[in-house]
């Protein structure tokens, strides 16, 4: 598990290898990840959008931007957590992801970014 705190918002990420399969005559490696967003600040905040950079050891990095997470824009009061699960496909058994969330502080109405720490994606059978 990797963790990072930005402006009182703690991001924790756990990863899993889900398996391999063929798609369009090409081998793909499926990875899952579970993110917990914990508000350790004294203000209520809302997650508005996400920005991901997905690294695949055999391809150029892919950028993914979108509103919310899994169709939600969670509001977190002080001490609250929001956990969600998602995944990605790589064409190699190794990769990584990193990014940030666009958040808004309800007390100050200021927008800010919360860093998502870099986490590795690796198929266990491909490790030495």
Automatic annotation (TrEMBL):
Stretches assigned to the ApaG domain: 3-128
InterPro entries per UniProt: ApaG_domain (IPR007474), ApaG_sf (IPR036767)
A Pfam family recorded for this sequence: DUF525
Gene3D superfamilies documented for this protein: ApaG domain
Name the record gives this protein: Co2+/Mg2+ efflux protein ApaG
Domain of life from the UniProt record: Bacteria
Signal peptide extent: none
């Amino acid at each position: 598990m990797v963790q990072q705190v930005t402006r009182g918002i703690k991001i924790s990420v756990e990863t899993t290898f889900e398996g391999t399969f063929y798609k369009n005559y090409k081998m793909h490696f499926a990875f899952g990840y579970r993110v917990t967003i914990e508000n350790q600040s004294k203000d209520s905040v809302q997650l508005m959008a996400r920005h991901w950079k997905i690294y695949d050891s055999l391809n150029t990095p892919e950028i993914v931007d979108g509103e919310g997470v899994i169709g939600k824009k969670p509001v977190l009061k002080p001490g609250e957590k929001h956990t969600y699960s998602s995944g990605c496909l790589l064409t190699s058994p190794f990769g990584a992801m990193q990014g940030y969330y666009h958040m808004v502080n309800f007390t100050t109405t200021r927008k800010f970014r919360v860093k998502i720490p870099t986490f590795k994606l690796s198929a266990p059978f491909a490790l030495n």
